[in-house]
């Protein structure tokens, strides 16, 4: 390796060797005493199983100095996906975009200009970084800052991330007629995979007790759009939800994701015709309540149902879970009767229902405008609308075993 190859892997020279199934390989030091360990992920590869909303969440927690999560040095390096030496909102944005395949590689500082265009010396961005354990143990730059989360000018923090060289020197004790090499352990770090799913196969197993719910039965319909609510079931606290959907593109076209108080990014990939959504919240999400809506544009004047979803993969806190696609007409409702009037409404809306429920009013963007409306069974509950501007709204009602929604219009 030349001296400049530590900064630019595009000009690395020497033979290429590949490890066997056990990760073992041989390299002849006659070609040089430096090794470059590389692994590049092909463009358009689905990385959501490893890089997803939970990784973005952990990165956000470091940015806000959340004392409940202190990263190790490997996690800090994984967060700095743009390799600029700091952990920032730009890294979170790229993690989200890579999770849903808006980006096919990270825009790293050595490789891209500030405006996102490739530099003249461009070569594939690094997906992986390798570092020897001796450096991690004995180099002060790889020890956590003594003032963490503040920067002490030496150790790692969000303001100072170790910049691992692209070219690593082999641990040669001395060189006479032949080299004597000390043993060394190299750790692989996948950029963006902050929680290290790639090396923990238990995280890739299906958590069968948990699920993401795609609720076609409580979808909200307008003349041109369908808003499908997404919720979840879990035995653990959940802060991030990811989805990978393959659906009938002759009936539906992805429009947007509607959410409150969550960081959500959605993207329909034209190459594999799949919709990927990643989301995370600094607050624990509420189980069995709508986390966000997926808005689809209707392409045909026909009913849309669970059968129109060909395949669905879900992730909660980065772990793979089942996806329950709830068909229309399946919500437990018994003989519940609900009536809201007048519609259109002016200053007041009346709710009548044959069941004790809680109600809330949601605007066209999915934002909850009025919440916590308690409605007693077989009574008439009046809701003050005098402060609401003219427009279309949705009244959602729910209880432990019932949920329903109706649209209404406010006109003055």
Description:
There is one protein chain. With 412 residues, the protein is mainly beta. Strand 12 and strand 13 form a beta hairpin. The chain has helices at residues 53-63, 73-79, 89-99, 133-138, and strands at residues 34-35, 128-132, 168-169, 172-175, 179-181, 186-190, 207-215, 220-221, 225-233, 240-247, 252-259, 263-269, 274-280, 292-298, 309-316, 319-326, 338-341, 348-353, 357-363, 368-375, 379-384, 391-399, 402-410. Helix 1 (53-63) runs antiparallel to helix 3 (89-99). The strands form 6 sheets. Strands 7, 8, 9, 10, 11, 12, 13, 14, 15 and 16 form a 10-stranded mixed sheet that branches. Strands 20-19-22-23 form a 4-stranded antiparallel sheet, with no helix packed on it. The model has no long low-confidence stretch (mean pLDDT 87).
Attribute tags:
single chain, 412 residues, mainly beta, ten-stranded mixed β-sheet, four-stranded antiparallel β-sheet, 4 helices, 23 strands, 8% helix
Topology of helices and strands:
Blueprint lengths: L33 E2 L17 H11 L9 H7 L9 H11 L28 E5 H6 L29 E2 L2 E4 L3 E3 L4 E5 L16 E9 L4 E2 L3 E9 L6 E8 L4 E8 L3 E7 L4 E7 L11 E7 L10 E8 L2 E8 L11 E4 L6 E6 L3 E7 L4 E8 L3 E6 L6 E9 L2 E9 L2
Parallel strand pairs: 7-16
Antiparallel strand pairs: 1-3, 2-6, 4-5, 7-9, 8-9, 9-14, 10-13, 10-15, 11-14, 12-13, 15-16, 17-18, 18-21, 19-20, 19-22, 22-23
User: How widely separated are the two ends?
Assistant: 74 Å
Give the class from helix and strand content and strand pairing: mainly beta
Order of helices and strands: EHHHEHEEEEEEEEEEEEEEEEEEEEE
The outline comes out as elongated
Assembly level: single chain
Largest β-sheet summary: 10 strands, mixed
**How confident is the prediction overall: mean pLDDT?**
87
- Number of DSSP helical runs: 4
Question: pLDDT below 50 for ≥5 consecutive residues: which ranges?
Answer: none
Strand residue content: 25-35%
Alpha-carbon Rg, integer: 26 Å
Q: Helix share of residues?
A: under 10%
Would you count the extended β strands for me? 23
């Amino acid at each position: 390796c030349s001296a400049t190859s530590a900064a630019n892997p595009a000009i690395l020279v020497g033979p290429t060797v590949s490890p066997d199934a056990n990760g073992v390989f041989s390299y002849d030091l006659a070609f040089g005493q430096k090794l470059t360990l590389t692994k590049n992920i092909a463009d358009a590869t689905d990385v959501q199983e490893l890089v997803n909303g939970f990784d973005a969440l952990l990165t956000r927690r470091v940015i806000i100095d959340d004392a409940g999560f202190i990263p190790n040095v490997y996690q800090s390096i994984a967060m700095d996906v743009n390799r600029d030496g700091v952990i920032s909102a730009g890294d979170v944005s790229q993690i989200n975009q890579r999770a849903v395949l808006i980006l096919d590689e990270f825009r790293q500082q050595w490789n891209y200009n500030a405006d996102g265009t490739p530099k003249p010396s461009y070569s594939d961005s690094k997906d992986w970084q390798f570092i020897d354990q001796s450096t991690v143990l004995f180099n002060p730059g790889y020890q956590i800052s003594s003032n963490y989360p503040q920067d002490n000018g030496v150790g790692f923090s969000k303001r100072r991330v170790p910049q691992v060289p692209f070219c690593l020197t082999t641990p040669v004790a001395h060189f006479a007629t032949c080299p004597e090499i000390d043993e060394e352990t190299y750790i692989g770090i996948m950029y963006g995979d902050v929680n290290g799913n790639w090396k923990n196969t238990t995280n890739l197993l299906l958590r069968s007790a948990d699920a993401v719910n795609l609720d076609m039965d409580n979808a909200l319909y307008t003349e041109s759009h369908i808003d499908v609510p997404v919720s979840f079931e879990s035995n653990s606290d959940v802060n991030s939800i990811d989805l990978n959907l393959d659906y009938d593109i002759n009936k539906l076209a992805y429009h947007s994701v509607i959410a409150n108080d969550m960081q959500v990014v959605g993207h329909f990939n034209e190459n594999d015709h799949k919709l990927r959504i990643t989301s995370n919240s600094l607050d624990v999400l509420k189980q069995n309540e709508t986390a966000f809506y997926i808005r689809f544009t209707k392409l045909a004047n026909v009913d849309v149902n669970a059968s129109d979803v060909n395949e669905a993969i879900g992730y909660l806190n980065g772990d793979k879970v089942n996806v329950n696609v709830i068909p229309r007409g399946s919500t437990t409702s018994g003989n519940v009767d609900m009536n809201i009037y007048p519609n259109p409404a002016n200053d007041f809306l009346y709710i009548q229902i044959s069941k004790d429920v809680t109600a809330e009013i949601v605007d066209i963007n999915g934002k909850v405008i009025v919440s916590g409306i308690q409605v007693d069974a077989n009574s008439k509950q009046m809701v003050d609308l005098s402060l609401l501007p003219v427009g279309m709204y949705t009244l959602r009602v729910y209880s432990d075993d019932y949920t329903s929604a109706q649209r209404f219009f406010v006109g003055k």
